[in-house]
Design a protein that fits this description.
globular; four-stranded antiparallel sheet
């Protein structure tokens, strides 16, 4: 019934009904990569340096960790008790996946997640997907086996991706080579092109 979004150009976090009504501003500072908690009571986000959570009803945002830097891409665990995120060493080099326990605030590296980035838990809690480099690929973690494996290799940079509500697929956009919208089945890894979108090119002009 509700959506959270970052307003451009302020970068402030808002929520509203799906039709845009009852809009409420939740932050006075930039907020990106917002993610609802499973119970709908909180929204986690990053300001490209730290990870915060703010009540969906409004109030002061809460910084989740005092230490660390370059913390991005918060992903709630399905039970809402922890958040997986990744850090970057500098701007472009992923430093791996970490987990913060929301009760103790203890931060631990996620086993096997070194150098992985852009984590996303499946709604049913069975799988976590992330990206890896050298070679570029999407990897998948099984909560049952505690193991990682490659789900699909890529020969061009990935775009955005999101889980289907039934946890049976990840929808992936690509805007450079092979531009289009795709469906990647889980856990099988079948790749299906769903639609075409125009190629995107960025130019710098003086």
């Amino acid at each position: 019934q509700w959506m959270a979004y970052t307003e451009y150009p302020s970068g402030h976090l808002w929520k509203s009904r799906l039709d845009g009504s009852e809009a409420v501003q939740l932050t006075e500072a930039p907020a990106w990569m917002e993610q609802w908690s499973p119970d709908g009571k909180w929204i986690a986000y990053s300001d490209w340096g730290k990870i915060y959570r703010v009540s969906a009803d409004g109030g002061a945002p809460e910084k989740l960790m005092a230490e660390g830097n370059n913390e991005v891409i918060p992903a709630w665990s399905p039970d809402g008790k922890s958040i997986v995120f990744n850090r970057f060493d500098g701007w472009n080099e992923p430093d791996g996946l970490y987990v913060v326990n929301l009760e103790s605030r203890k931060v631990t590296p996620m086993a096997g997640g070194e150098k992985f980035y852009i984590p996303a838990w499946s709604p049913d809690g069975r799988y976590l997907v992330a990206m890896a480099r050298e070679p570029l690929r999407m990897v998948i973690y099984s909560a049952a086996t505690k193991q990682w494996r490659t789900l699909r290799p890529f020969d061009a940079p990935e775009g955005f991706y999101a889980w289907s509500p039934d946890s049976r697929a990840v929808y992936v956009s690509q805007t450079l080579t092979h531009a289009g919208m795709y469906r990647l089945s889980v856990p099988g890894g079948e790749w299906e092109r769903l639609s075409d979108i125009p190629d995107t090119t960025v130019y710098n002009e003086a």
